[in-house]
Write a structure and sequence with these properties.
heterodimer; A: 227 residues; alpha/beta; 6-stranded mixed beta sheet; 4-stranded antiparallel beta sheet; 10 strands; B: alpha+beta; 13-stranded mixed beta sheet; 8-stranded mixed beta sheet; 26 helices; 27 strands
Chain lengths: 227, 786
């Protein structure tokens, strides 16, 4: 599904050029659950942003479902992203002015899904994440765990092929964190590819494969069996 | 999607009530000011342009050379109109128009001074289609005993407008039948103060008609056939006066539609007129609206950090930039809509006072569909103008920068927000300087020596029996010690009713065309008016009966005539010889801002129609008026006693300037208020943003004074830059404004000092609350959150 080859990413200011990612090669098969780990500043979030088409490469190739997307302009990236990729963030990133229902509905609005169908699909995913009873509440009225469940619901409502999770349990206690990891596991078992950045060795155990990074490079890949 | 936009917009407004309120109030005031100005502009642009036949109507004018300059004026001889009708078949209609004032109207027991009226020819109502309430105005003018009156006059006389066939006695002799009633004439016409129309035949009957082609005393309007070749007509018409009289005048045709806006001539060519005011006020309206929109832009972009995360999330889940721009524009249009409703309310509440200020009856016609279309368009325009920059700015945020944490907005030395604040305050400072300059100019005019004594001096226009019993009235006033001096003149002291270039004196060069103002007086003119004699003596008929053919000159007249020793010299005017008995110091008869024109005051052999009365200083004004009224009632019982104080009339000469001054103050006040509103909001936001920094500085030892200075410093610097930009622009603009006055102030440095200090002080007061509040906050509270 994802094939990244010889990826280079630099950050340049007037005085300094920083290598964020150096000759990274990643291959993620459809249906895999991959965890990316490493110390702060190793480039794992940068890698996730590139995989999620939120940032561009300086050098290298990125094949998404066999399509070369490295040179895509913003509009094309946006189209590809909204139809294929869902995001789950550490700080939830729900919109405070929208209710739970409206937050989850948002991706469907931007893919021009008719209102009746939107309602049905949103209600379906809200049931799935067990937050339907709070559909008319605003994010400020929910606990951290509940907010993350809403974020997961938003990420999956468009039936994306790929979910990118950036430290999804980072702001949660262990109980809520477990619940979220459980949700992600269920989605993966249903066929969704998941790439997750995490600091937590515990969370990494849910993945099929762990990619370890250091100073912008992949230094080790281990499978679940070998962890 | 649009529904979603409005829902989000509404919730955002409710969430940030403070900023929303500042935004709405600022925009509402800006929009209201723009609407008020546009109402006036609309009135100007439709001045005498609303008749069905506007495009076919022209006013006749004259053009001739005076003192090497070509002058154009629009007074014509009474004999011209019938001659035009006879000689030009392409002229469908022609009408003379002249004032018909100072009649006494009697209806039953009601006696009133007639007020403003017009003598017109029968074609007038065919040419100028004013709204009719009752009767047939065209038919009425054909009947020499019918009168057309307006709604207000009808209600004054009869308490009704259903008055066709009713009678009005004019003076003591003539009875007229009401032939038609018109709605009160609109404000935006030269005829706006007219309350009645009398047929031209009546002017003839009372002996005011003449066939003198040299007496340019009426206006002449023509209606041309729409198929007329205007260039041919103009060419044929050019020498019309010359064909009928010995004259060097050329005749011109001016479209009626241009008379109001393009009435200024220089050397025979149109160089502008009221249109310049229209342009200036259009610019002012644009600036005020721009300032309000700048407020909106600044406050919206200042809050960008709060919206950054939302923008990032929306982009991540699939929103394109266009969709986000649409969302933010929807918010700004919603605010503009709410502000627009509030603006309409403000306009309604302030319209009476504003109409008074601009001396024009303005109204908002809210039952007109056109009005609502314009209103919606105005809201959309304002919403898009105000929201465009914030929409493009906010929608440009990249998700990867906004979603990880706080958006780090780099504060640069030259940011768009700073440019917007500087722009706002530059405009505000220009208005402040304009207000100061205009008020100084008015004061300058008011301080100018009038040359006469206007205290306790009134005039009464002679109506009814006053003319015949003037000597008895005068005698009574003096004997009863009501007055210390009385004189009868052609015109009120501070009005010019007559002028001429046809005055002759010994040694006058043959090509001299100097224009002299002309008035007349019977006796004790200098004494009554408190003028200063610099040679000779006053009119004194009791000791010098020949003073009836005497003449007094002002200094400027003596200079124009080149007399070294004027006393005893002869001046010829209107086929009479006048011997010079005195010279007075120049006094202000016309504008206090213009040079004094040569003036001749001819003796009692010329006609008089005004009595000036200098009250006895031993009587209070009320007593003096009461006694004067009693005397006038005794000798002129049929007419109400009406008088005017000379000092009040003189004060009216500053009316136009004061009006402009009041408007300048109003606009300056509005721009300052709107700008300060925005500054207040910005200061609040920036203080909130720097809470952590302030907390740290306090812990490290900064005092309240240090912190207040730090927070205020940036704003004070921006306002100082605004002053530096505004000063040269304001100087140039005001210098241009003052060129229309011959007597004008110099724009001195203290004006700029006052404006600059005021702007900085106002700024400091506006932001000090927020600065001091932030500076005295407990640092523990801000640092605890970190």
């Amino acid at each position: 599904m994802i094939k990244i080859t010889n990826l280079q990413k630099f950050y340049r200011t007037l005085e300094v050029e920083t290598v964020a990612l150096n000759d990274v090669n990643i291959h993620v098969k459809e249906g895999e659950f991959v965890a990316v780990m490493g110390p702060s500043g190793c480039g794992k979030s940068t890698l996730l942003n590139i995989v999620g088409l939120l940032d561009d490469l300086d050098e290298g190739s990125y094949l998404f479902n066999s399509i070369e997307v490295a040179k895509f302009k913003e509009n094309k990236r946006s189209d590809l992203r909204k139809h294929n990729i869902g995001f789950v963030f550490q700080s939830f990133n729900l919109i405070d002015e929208l209710t739970v229902f409206e937050n989850v509905e948002l991706p469907l609005v931007y893919t021009n899904v008719p209102a009746a169908e939107r309602k049905a699909r949103v209600e379906e995913v809200l049931e799935k994440v067990q937050i339907m009873h709070r559909r008319n509440h605003f994010p400020q009225q929910l606990s951290g765990g509940q907010q993350q469940r809403v974020a997961v619901a938003r990420a999956v409502v468009n039936n994306p092929k790929l979910i990118l999770a950036d430290e999804p349990t980072g702001n949660l206690d262990s109980s809520n964190g477990n619940e979220v990891m459980q949700l992600l596991t269920e989605l993966n078992e249903a066929g969704t590819t998941i790439v997750m950045v995490t600091h937590s060795e515990y969370d990494a155990k849910f993945a099929d494969r762990v990619i370890r990074m250091l100073d912008g490079q992949v230094i080790l890949e281990t499978t679940a069996l070998s962890q | 999607m649009i529904q979603n936009f409005f829902k989000i917009a509404w919730r955002n407004l409710k969430k940030n009530k403070g900023f929303t309120a500042i935004n709405i109030i600022g925009l509402a005031i800006g929009m209201a000011a723009a609407i008020l100005i546009m109402l006036w502009i609309n009135s100007e642009l439709t001045y005498d342009r609303f008749y069905k036949k506007t495009d076919q109507l022209y006013i006749i004018g004259n053009k001739d050379k005076w003192n090497d300059k070509i002058e154009v004026w629009f007074a014509t001889p009474k004999a011209m109109a019938p001659a035009i009708k006879a000689e030009f078949p392409e002229v469908k209609n022609v009408s003379r128009v002249t004032s018909a004032d100072n009649f006494l109207f009697t209806v039953g027991q009601t006696k009133i001074n007639s007020g403003n009226g017009l003598f017109v020819d029968t074609a007038y109502m065919n040419m100028f289609d004013f709204p009719i309430l009752e009767g047939d105005p065209q038919h009425a003018l054909r009947n020499p005993t019918q009168i057309i009156i307006t709604e207000t006059l009808a209600k004054t006389l009869y308490n009704s407008t259903d008055v066709i066939g009713k009678t009005i006695k004019i003076d003591s002799t003539d009875v007229f039948i009401v032939g038609a009633v018109l709605a009160d004439l609109p404000n935006n016409t030269l005829f706006n103060r007219t309350q009645y129309f009398l047929p031209w035949q009546y002017l003839k009957k009372i002996g005011r008609d003449d066939k003198n082609w040299g007496n340019n005393s009426v206006s002449t309007y023509i209606e041309v056939d729409p198929t007329t070749n205007l260039k041919n007509l103009e060419a044929n018409f050019k020498n019309f006066t010359q064909r009928h009289a010995e004259s060097t005048h050329e005749n011109v045709l001016k479209p009626l539609a241009d008379t109001w806006l393009y009435g200024k001539y220089e050397n025979g060519k149109v160089v502008g007129g009221r249109i310049e005011m229209v342009r200036v006020f259009s610019i002012i309206a644009s600036f005020i609206l721009l300032i309000a929109c700048i407020n909106f832009m600044n406050l919206s972009t200042a809050q960008s950090e709060k919206r950054a995360k939302e923008v990032g999330v929306r982009k991540v889940v699939g929103a394109k930039r266009g969709s986000l721009i649409g969302q933010f524009l929807t918010e700004s249009i919603l605010i503009a809509f709410i502000a627009g409703i509030l603006a309409i309310l403000i306009v309604f509440l302030s319209l009476p006072a504003y109409s008074n200020l601009v001396d024009r009856k303005l109204s908002l016609n809210i039952i007109n569909l056109y009005f609502w279309l314009m209103f919606v368009g105005f809201i959309l325009f304002t919403g898009i103008l105000a929201g465009s920059y914030p929409a493009f700015y906010l929608s440009s945020f990249q998700p990867i920068k906004t979603l990880k944490g706080k958006l780090q907005l780099v504060s640069s030395k030259v940011s768009a927000r700073k440019i917007l604040v500087v722009t706002q305050f530059s405009i505000a400072v220009i208005f402040i300087i304009s207000t100061l300059v205009i008020s100084k100019q008015i004061q300058y005019g008011q301080d100018r020596e009038t040359g006469f004594n206007k205290e306790r001096l009134i005039y009464v226009l002679e109506q009814g029996e006053i003319y015949d019993k003037s000597s008895l009235i005068k005698q009574a006033l003096l004997q009863q010690k009501v007055a210390t001096s009385v004189t009868r003149t052609m015109s009120p002291l501070t009005q010019r009713w007559s002028n001429s270039s046809g005055i002759y004196w010994e040694g006058k060069p043959s090509d001299n065309t100097t224009m002299f103002n002309r008035t007349s007086a019977d006796d004790k003119f200098v004494e009554t008016a408190g003028l200063t004699l610099i040679a000779g003596r006053d009119f004194d008929l009791s000791n010098f009966p020949t003073d009836s053919s005497a003449i007094i000159l002002n200094e400027s007249a003596v200079k124009a005539m080149g007399f070294e020793d004027p006393i005893g010299k002869t001046v010829k005017d209107m086929d009479m010889d006048w011997h010079v008995i005195g010279v007075i110091k120049d006094y202000i008869q016309e504008s206090p801002f213009e040079p004094i024109v040569p003036l001749v005051i001819e003796g009692a052999k010329n006609y008089t129609s005004t009595t000036h009365i200098k009250f006895n200083p031993d009587l209070s004004t009320r007593e003096a008026l009461a006694k004067t009224e009693k005397i006038f009632k005794e000798y002129n019982p049929d007419y109400p006693f009406e008088y005017t104080f000379i000092d009040e009339e003189y004060a009216m000469k500053f009316g136009e300037s004061k009006k402009i001054g009041s408007l300048a103050s109003l606009f300056a006040g509005l721009t300052i208020f709107i700008s300060c509103l925005g500054l207040f909001g910005l200061a609040a936001f920036m203080a909130e943003n720097r809470t952590k920094e302030i907390g740290i500085r306090k812990v490290l030892g900064a005092s309240v004074f240090n912190l207040t200075r730090m927070l205020s410093g940036e704003f004070i610097l921006l306002i100082s830059i605004s002053c530096l930009i505004a000063f040269p622009i304001a100087y140039w603009a005001m210098d241009q404004f003052l060129t229309k006055y011959t007597f004008r102030i110099t724009i001195s440095w203290d004006i700029f000092l006052i404006a600059g200090v005021s702007a900085i002080l106002i700024t400091f007061l506006t932001i000090s609350y927020q600065s001091i509040k932030a500076a005295i906050a407990n640092p523990v509270n801000s640092l605890r959150d970190e």
